[in-house]
Amino acid sequence: MSFTPNIPNASVNKEYSYLITFPPIYHGIVISGIDKDEIGLEIESITENSFKIFGTPIKSGTIEIKVKYIQEGLFSNKSKEEIFELIINPDPRDLWKDLPVPDDIEYKKENEFTKCVIPQKEGLKNVIAASKRGRSHAQEAKSRDDHFKITFNPDNEWYILAVADGAGSAEFSREGARIACETVWEFCNQKLSENQDFDNAIIAYKQAADSKDEAKELEARKVIGNQLYSLLVMAAYKAHVAINKEATQKERQAKAYSTTLLLSVVKKFDFGWFTSAFWIGDGAICLFDMNNKTAKLLGIPDEGEYSGQTRFVTMSEVFTDSTALFKRLRFNIVDDFTALFLMSDGVSDPMFETDFNLNNYDKWVEFYKNITENQENPVDLSHEKSEEAKQALLNWLNFWSPGNHDDRTIAILY
Amino acid sequence: MRRLPVYILIDTSGSMKGEPIEAVKVCLSDMFSTLKNDPYSLETVWVSVITFNKEAQVLFPLTELDKIVVPKISVPDDGPTHIGRALELLCNQYDAEVRNTNVEQKGDWRPLLFILTDGKPSDILHYNNMVEEVKLRKFGNIFACAAGMKAKKEPLLQLTSNVLESASIDAGTFKQFFQYVSVTITEGGKSVQMTPDIDNPPEEIEIQLDF
């Protein structure tokens, strides 16, 4: 019977310690093959028969540990030698390559982008957003597909927030996502600047809601619904058309530009914050309020058990059923809130995993703390720090989550 | 985290004794080392190896790639090849180990199954029943390798159309098979990560199955 220790694997950059104990018939044990300078591990004799292998490996590979010893026999002692293997795994962080995107690709886009919006008026909230190319794209010299656009218009005091996630499998989705954000922004910005109709409808709704007259409230709610429809749904439809146009011009299928869209327009009125959202595809929009302990998802992510597949702005079937489109609209009037989040699934998947968790307030508290109290890259969400916060948010997007390396984009109104 | 479970069934009947099984072990270790250098695989792939001769045995259960230490594989002198029994054990392991999606957690990606044999099922009736059982499980893809003159392709074809044939049982054959396995796994890992919204198996990879 030979002695076969099952030496557990070590990993680069992870502290390791293992005690190897030889049978008593082994004498004068001499171990070689563990070189601290080369592999980062060392060996120390604890007793005559047991040795501790410890340290933090610096290089991956299979190490051959040579063990020389003397085996006592009845008549004579035998000098013996055995070899054991110790496997040192690589650190996955070292394996991900960060390859630049070729210069000559169509629709070139920065690998990361960040922005902050600070309205110059007391009592208003700031917006920060960051977007970063995922490791899975960096590994293959592919472009970031996500996109965002955040603005505040000082003339009418409307915030417009748009986040789009180009489908990983669609070749030109990075442009689809860009067109989606730009188009919805342009449309909404123009509509909201044109006249006061929408603002008036919101004020009328608030009065109706305060009157406690249910019929009145319902009536006013319908008006808002219609207004929102012609604002947000039409904006998304414009994006759909614009992407189709680009695809047709390039003689491609619109599918090659597949992208999701998360869109929100927000304004502060005397009586509180009006927030609204329209959302096609996965990711998340959430109105988070620590004071009232609420986290309202402003829509339903298009995935789940049954569809098994997300929806995209590029799909014409999304725009054929107006009842279904109505169901995607959300609006709220609240006194105040902690933050409004818009994020691509590159963030929501690793952070929440399931729809159930997305609907769980406690998970949103965890999420919020993960951002603000992060050990490596905390983001200070106090108002006077917004300029610094946008860079911090970009750094925060580097968070490590095994198996989750998609592009990541997040916008926070706070 | 969504895991990509990989089950590998290895024939350890008498005819595999000696050089063939040693070659398999070396190829397995090489394959793990290759996979560990691919970041997709290192983070998502979990492997279990089941060996079979007269009996089927879990050599090691579903284990994270970086924790795998390949143990000794023992081979009896002779005896039948009970692939049916191996499939039965596989189904039991699948039921116990593969995670389904629940409210708080996304389930595993569809598992991959690889079978390596140098013979044919001696328990053909049981085998036929178990093939049906395997089909009830949601394997993303199944690949089989029939190595050596005595290996029969036909029973394996009931399980999958991806059957590799080789006339010899030697290190070269196993090396090619396990290289194929590792390419399939890494490509699979990549495709599941690149299309995170589709809860489907990794796409079937177009690789010429010629030896």
* DSSP helix fraction of chain B: 25-40%
Number of strands of chain B: 6
Number of domains of chain A: 2
- The tally of strands of chain A reads 18
Task: Characterise this structure.
The complex is a heterodimer of chains A (414) and B (211). Chain A has 414 residues and is of the alpha+beta class. Chain A is built from 12 helices and 18 strands. Chain A has 2 domains: 10-92, Immunoglobulin-like; 112-413, PPM-type phosphatase domain (Phosphatase 2c, domain 1). Chain A has helices at 36-39, 92-95, 135-138, 173-194, 197-210, 214-249, 304-307, 322-327, 345-352, 355-358, 361-372, 386-396; strands at 10-11, 16-21, 26-32, 41-45, 50-55, 61-72, 77-89, 112-117, 127-132, 146-153, 158-165, 261-269, 272-280, 284-289, 294-297, 330-334, 339-343, 408-413. In chain A, helix 4 crosses helix 6 and helix 5 (197-210) runs antiparallel to helix 6 (214-249). The N and C termini of chain B lie far apart (36 Å). In chain B, strands 3-2-1-4-5-6 form a 6-stranded mixed beta sheet, with helices on both faces. The radius of gyration of chain B is 16 Å and the shape is globular. In chain B, helix 1 runs parallel beside helix 6 and helix 3 (83-97) packs parallel to helix 4 (124-136). Residues 192-211 of chain B have low confidence and may be disordered. The A-B interface holds A 4, 6-9, 11, 60, 62, 87, 89-90, 92, 95-96, 135-136, 139, 167-169, 282, 303, 305, 308-310, 345, 349, 353-354, 356-357, 401-406 and B 1-3, 33, 36-40, 42-44, 65-69, 71-72, 101-106, 190, 193-200.
